[in-house]
Amino acid sequence: MERKQFPGVKAALVIGASLATAAPAFAQSSVTLYGIVDNGIGYQSSSTTLGSTSGGHSAFKMITGVWAGSRFGLKGAEDLGGGTKAIFTLEEGFSANSGAMSTTNLMFSRQAFVGVTNSTYGTLTAGRQYASYYQLLSPYSPTTWLTGFYGAHPGDVDGLDTIYRANNTLLYMSPQLYGFKFSGSYSLAGVPGSAYQGSTWSTAIQYAQGPIGLAVGFSRINNSNSNGGAFGSDTTTSNAGAQTGISAVTNGYQSARAQQRFAVGAGYTFNSQFDITATYTNVQYIAGVGSGFRDEAIWNTGGIVLHWKPTAVWDFATGYSYTRATKANGIASSAQYQQFNLSEYYSLSKRTGLYALQAYQRANGQTLAPNTSGGGTHIINATATLGDGFNSTPSSSRSMVGVGVGIVHRF
Fold first, then answer.
1. pLDDT, tens digit (0-9, with 9 covering 90-100), for 248-303
2. What distance in Å separates the CA atoms of residue 393 and residue 405, rounded to the nearest whole number?
3. Source organism's superkingdom (predicted)?
4. What is the structure's pLDDT at 10?
5. Residue 28 confidence (pLDDT)
6. How many angstroms separate the CA atoms of 338 and 355, rounded?
7. Which CA distances in Å does 171 have to 82, 115, 371?
8. 3-class secondary structure for the chain?
């Protein structure tokens, strides 16, 4: 649930020069401590429990990890010679309001991987990490300037924010060649008797040259319960046994046998002040015999973001997205979501900034919600849910307004 625009912003503790001086026979190593602390205040016009279409009330509360998810981490590298390095990343998210871990029972919930990298042959990593789909599409995601909290496509249905991380993942990232970069990843669930149940696989290709950028990606997440039903704890996108990405958009389809995502993202930089990005995504939730729905559910989303930087310290952005579901599972009027976003960012320094965010969403049509008992689903009116910061507290009505202000510091 965050904006991801500062990949080079890390600071702090670099260990290695002293090791090289004390023991010159060993390869040079470094470890970097880095992090982000983000806190703010937010308002939403209607807040209720997931699946409810009544009883919503406005909410005014502290919010954390909005512009960038609060975190701390360690990154390390060791020169193995011949242009090859051993690398690792350990990264944990937390709430700056309460100090709690972002995911209970996960010490490094955001990333935990080790691997090798070579400028000629590419990078191979193993552990909990973002799949290839996200890694190469993220530069064109709406969350770059609109944040994931308020600006992800409704419920982050297409996975263009950082909420989907895959356990037990082997990932290869090629070096850039003539502007092209390729990546492929496979996540092993370790289910006895099957290399397929609970697995996640992904592939993507990116082209970036001069002012033009383009990426295409595909991802499939398999439920470890191969017939569908509640996502098993062995599913590789599980967060300590909990399923990721359940929102008012997908609530009635969370028992899918598998999820598939296809996306195209593009960007163009006009000059130092203006750039534009656009995305199209197709998401499929595939039913199994144990699912609470019978027909494949499909969402198509198109979105566009315009970013303007008039001075060295100010950034402004605006965006629009339209999501439409297909008619299926007895629904006569398919769900539709229109979302409008604005963002403003003021740099106090290279590491500290103030931000303000405004968003509005209008939902129409119908969707599914799980029955409170006995399994299965029933048809309800689609309700608004801005970005992915309100996945568990959506609006009880067709509309939702969200506003937030905050401060972010990077170290």
1. 999 999 999 999 999 999 999 999 999 999 999 999 999 999 999 999 999 999 99
2. 19
3. Bacteria
4. 40
5. 86
6. 23
7. 22, 9, 38
8. CCCCCCCCCCCCCECCHHHHHHCCCCCCEEEEEEEEEEEEEEEEEEECCCCCCCCCEEEEEEEECCCCCCEEEEEEEEEEECCEEEEEEEEEEECCCCCCECCCCCCCCCEEEEEEEECCCEEEEEEEECCHHHHHHHHHCCHHHHCHHHHCCHHHCCCCCCCCCEEEEEEEECCCECCEEEEEEEECCCCCCCCCCCCEEEEEEEEEECCEEEEEEEEEEECCCCCCCCCCCCCCCCECCECCCCCCCCHHHCCCCEEEEEEEEEEEECCCCEEEEEEEEEEEEECCCCCCCCCCEEEEEEEEEEEECCCCCEEEEEEEEEEEECCCCCCCCECEEEEEEEEEEEECCCCEEEEEEEEEEEEECEEEEECCCCCCEEEEECCCCCCCCCCCCCCCCCEEEEEEEEEEEEC
Residue the block writes with tokens 């064109």: 140
Ordered structural domains, the chain, with CATH? 17-410 (2.40.160.10)
- Tell me, what's the pLDDT at 21? 40
Residue with token string 């290279």: 350
Cα separation, 387 vs 332, in Å, equals 26
Question: 110 in the Ramachandran plot: left (φ > 0), alpha (ψ -120 to 50) or beta?
Answer: alpha
The pLDDT value given to residue 1: 55
pLDDT at 399: 98
pLDDT at 3: 53
Spans in the chain with pLDDT lower than 50: 5-25
Tokens (6 digits) for 14: 């670099």
DSSP bridge pairs for 171: 125, 185
User: CB–CB of 283/289 below 8 Å?
Assistant: no
Distance CA 131, CA 158 (A): 13
- How buried is 217 (Cβ within 10 angstroms: 0-12 exposed, 13-18 middle, 19+ buried)? buried
pTM of this structure: 0.91
